[in-house]
Each structure stands twice: as C-alpha cells, then as structure tokens.
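Figure 2 data, in text form.
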Amino acid sequence: LHPGALYLLGIMHLTGEWVKKDIDLAIWCFHRASEK
C-alpha cells in the first residue's frame, strides 16, 4: 500500500466519522424540533 492510498483511506475514514456525527446531530435536532 503506497502512502497516497493510505492517506486517502485516512481521509475517507475521518470523513465517514464526521458524516456519522452530522447524521446523529441532524436526527437529534429533528427530534427536538418535532417535540415543540
């Protein structure tokens, strides 16, 4: 595995983590909004 591929995998992993957090946050916000 050459450095470029490893770097790309790292970016994809970090992006995946952030997307997951964003989705959790969006769902939480949606629930909060629907309670009102």
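Caption note: Residues 1-36 form one domain.
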